[in-house]
Amino acid sequence: MRQEYEITLQPLPGVPVERALPLRQRLWQQGWLRKGLILIVLAILWEAAARYQNNDLLLPSFLQTFHAFYDGIASGELLGKVSISLVVLLKGYLIGIVLAFALTTLAVSTQMGRDLLSTLTSMFNPLPAIALLPLALLWFGLGQNSLIFVLVHSVLWALALNTYSGFMGVSETLRMAGRNYGLKGMRFVLFILIPAALPSILAGLKIGWAFAWRTLIAAELVFGATSGKGGLGWYIFQNRNELYTDKVFAGLAVVILIGLLVENLVFDTLERVTVKRWGMQR
């Protein structure tokens, strides 16, 4: 090698590479900051549209909605409604997860299980969950069981389809490795199929959560009007009847905020510590 063509690289100073970037670029790399900026722009547009409309009954301003939201939190009314809705949601969501994994485990184990899953998903997946609410009220009466029934329906089929698709996408190399270790039945599913299909399973969990959350709010609008009590959906319905439009928007804002929190704090964290950390997802 000729020394005149060798270039000795000088070591970087003691400043980390991240700090060597301009401040504006470092801030722009923060996802929470970009999303917060989008929310601020939407709030400004909302306030401008409300002031232009100049009709509180049709469209309250962002500041009016914020005051209604603050009053609902301070009085504990909103928190009480949210707790009622979340308790029902978690019950239906967890039951749906258990049933979905039972169906997919049976589907990957036997031909009859595959036929059963294919037939049931073809029948019930296109059926809107809220359409089953009158039947649920007839079967289970005016109680949480009716809501749980429609929530299980909204979660079960989306999660089962995504999980089964992920199981079918597991490479034959991993399957052979599991068989070589003597894994069969439930142990084969737990130690081979679930870790390899985790991106699809997480996607199914996110879809199932979204379906369950919006189904619950829609069902509570009907259920609350029927029984005179309910959670967040009933809060929205009741204030709409009393023409408290600012409280209606405050309830809708809570629905959106809970969706954002679950999406960013729960599912994004799960993806970051699992499939993104393992290099299975970008």
Automatic annotation (TrEMBL):
PROSITE patterns with a match to the protein in the record: ABC_TM1
Protein name: ABC transporter permease
Pfam families: BPD_transp_1
Bilayer topology: Multi-pass membrane protein
Keyword ATP-binding (UniProt): no
Family annotation (InterPro entries): MetI-like, MetI-like_sf
Organism: Pseudomonas shahriarae
Lineage: superkingdom: Bacteria
Locations listed in the record: Cell membrane
Family of the protein in this entry: Belongs to the binding-protein-dependent transport system permease family.
Transmembrane segments: 84-108, 120-141, 147-167, 188-211, 217-237, 249-267
ABC transmembrane type-1 domain ranges (all copies): 78-267
Major localization class: membrane
Keywords on record: Cell membrane, Membrane, Transmembrane, Transmembrane helix, Transport
